[in-house]
Amino acid sequence: MTEFAARVEQVSISGIREVFEAASEDAINLGIGQPDFPTPEHARRGAIEAIEAERTDAYTSNKGTRSLREAIATKYDRDYGIDVDPADVIATSGGSEALHLALEAHVDAGQEVIFPDPGFVSYDALTRIAGGTPKPVPLRDDLTLDPATVEEAITDETAAFVVNSPANPTGAVQSEEDIREFARIADEHGVLCLSDEVYEHIVFDGEHHSPLKFAETDNVVVISACSKTYSMTGWRLGWVVASNRRIERMLRVHQYAQACASAPAQFAAEAALTGPQEPVREMVDAFEERRDVVLDGLEDAGLEVPTPSGAFYAMPKVPDGWCEEVLDRDVIVVPGDAFGANGEGYARLSYATGMEELKEALEIIDGATKAVR
């Protein structure tokens, strides 16, 4: 009798989803990882015009339309002074598919993938699905990833290490010095640095830096998406940028698993990238204001919380029973151990929700914290 692949049996349903399913319909949701802003009008218009012009009825190139890949390449020059050839880009079905392609193309059975713990839930699961061995490493006290910790974890079996800045679930932003070190480690050890930059434009303190700018070899693969920057999570449009030889290997996976990203989403993404960027700045300003309110509320409740410098998450240290008490009071938060063993004793809160709901949730959290102490 046919059973199930061992690599899939190692993967469980996300702990985040379990929290959502346990909550009531009226709960205030501080668990969801998507902006609560509309997709910019010019991005939606880009898709509509392409649909009406009958430009979206057929497959695009496997890599994506030439005009979208040119827009992505132009973005890297405009934002970071990085020269990217449009031929070295694949448009994907969200950042999640981009991450999947990168791991499938670079990880052999049993090879190790180093990633932050706590870290984004997909790193562990997609490593296992690729047949690799997850190797989570702890973070610093400020919840950033220490390059020295990564370098110490590298063995002859290491295929890749993941850098995520700004980070989910912590909101931490790596310094330029750290990013330069990650590039050096990739160069010197001949190990792939997989840089997850999906939150690249949601930065409040400091600046976003990519190891792609500093690496002297082609041992860096960058993943990003329209999902967070342009509030386009439902459009499922991301991309992967790498050297041509790496892109061609990832394309082999993408061709057979996906063929191409959604055509309407590609035209929406092109419009988002080439059109006005004011909606992005307005959204980031709103997130920063909310972050400050959330930090004040959590600290007033007596919780210790590292200041998140980007994304839209806070990760306070919480006492035993705190998450359950908060959930019982109809505020959805995600227990830190959903993001790895080192997340135990923390909780992730998303402030991608309206200010009034945030303030109401913080009052509830204050009462819940007093109840468990």
Describe the structure.
This protein is an alpha/beta fold and 373 residues long. The protein has helices at residues 6-9, 15-22, 41-52, 66-80, 94-106, 121-129, 147-153, 176-189, 244-257, 263-274, 278-300, 322-328, 355-371; strands at 28-29, 89-92, 112-117, 133-138, 158-164, 192-196, 220-225, 238-241, 313-314, 331-332, 334-335, 347-350. Helix 8 links the parallel strand 5 and strand 6. Helix 5 (94-106) packs across helix 6.
Strand content is 5-15%
Number of helices: 13
The sequence of SSEs as H and E is: HHEHHEHEHEHEHEEEHHHEHEEEH
What is the terminal separation in angstroms? 53 Å
Low-confidence stretches: none
* Widest sheet: strand ordering: 2-8-7-6-5-3-4
Helix content: 40-55%
The main sheet comes to: 7 strands, mixed
Shape: globular
* Number of DSSP strand runs: 12
Rg, alpha carbons: 20 Å
Question: Which structural class do you get from the secondary structure elements?
Answer: alpha/beta
In round numbers, the mean pLDDT is 96
